[in-house]
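User: I've been trying to design a sequence by hand for this structure and keep getting stuck. Would you show me what you'd pick, starting by listing the structure so we're on the same page?

Assistant: Good idea, let's start from the same input. This is the structure you sent:
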């Protein structure tokens, strides 16, 4: 995947699937089917997981933009 500057980003390649799994988990949390149940996820748990996934990527973007500001 490419980052906001058009460079290949390994961090974003790992962050996107993790974010997608988190969204799906939150969407189906608390569902039960044929005796199987998926544990519930409250908004605080979702927010904590979201920050743990997105935090490193957002920090990397901030550091990269400060070190290499966009050229006009």
């Amino acid at each position: 995947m490419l980052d906001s500057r058009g460079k290949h980003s390994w961090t974003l390649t790992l962050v996107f699937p993790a974010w997608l799994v988190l969204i799906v988990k939150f969407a189906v949390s608390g569902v039960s089917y044929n005796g199987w149940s998926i544990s519930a996820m409250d908004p605080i748990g979702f927010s904590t997981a979201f920050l743990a996934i997105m935090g490193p990527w957002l920090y990397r973007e901030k550091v990269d933009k400060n070190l290499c500001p966009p050229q006009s």
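That's my pick for every position. To get oriented when you compare it with your attempt: The chain is about 60% helix and 5% strand. The CA atoms of residues 5 and 65 lie 9 Å apart.
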